[in-house]
Amino acid sequence: MQRISGLKFQPGDVRATVLEAERLIRKAGFQCPDPAQRFYSRLADKAETDFEADAETWPATDRSAEERERGYAEASRRLNRKFDGITGDLFLVTEMVESPIEAMFGAWVVLFGNDGYNDIEFSFGPESRFDPEWGTNFTPQVTVAEYRADFLFKVCLKGSFRMLAVECDGHDYHERTADQAARDRSRDRRLLTNGIHVLRFTGREIVRDLEACMDDLSDALSRLAEELLVEAGIAKRRPQRWIQENVDLAGPPPRKRPT
């Protein structure tokens, strides 16, 4: 790994830190993925690879010496901040969630979540005192519009914000009844009418391809961030507004009256 001045972690440190977080999480008895899935081991391997790749490739070598120096300083600050938060953020996220599926999703966001512009940061709540000047926070298990969202993401820019709720559905691991489906649709409509978009992932999607889930999450958040940039006059051209495709705004079809 190419050395960046001021970088705290050495090769192998990131992997060891993730596995230490796993040890603390399991010792505390929190909701965890099945050990047979080797989730944390795979998570640790990917985190190590990604952190080292960031350290090696950023900033671009075709910049001037002054630009490279500023770039290295920014890289070290960003990577050190993320490295310092691994153990605590993984522990807190796993403590706050309600299922192993949510624990997997939350851990992936902690290490790899990005809104298209900034790394996503863990937050204790959506209150304004936690808002960054520019960036995205996320909090597990937040009550909003009378419903409890599995995760709430808040994209912020200079006091303005957009919110996205993410639901991790386990219906594909047990029977999903018509009543459950109706409750989900009602919940999504209520959130949307309160200005909160909803993104749903099934348990099977999370287990099989978390990277694809993160890509969808990043795309949704980046579109909300673009709205804020346009609103602030930073972006000149208004992007096409993102509309939640899997929320039926019209609701279920009316029931036929008995004849």
TrEMBL record:
Domain of life: Bacteria
Pfam family, one: MTES_1575
Start and end residues of each stretch annotated as Disordered: 51-71
Leader sequence segment: none
Ranges of residues in domain Restriction endonuclease type II-like: 133-221
InterPro entries: Restrct_endonuc-II-like, Restrct_endonuc-II-like_dom
Protein name: DUF559 domain-containing protein
Organism: Dankookia rubra
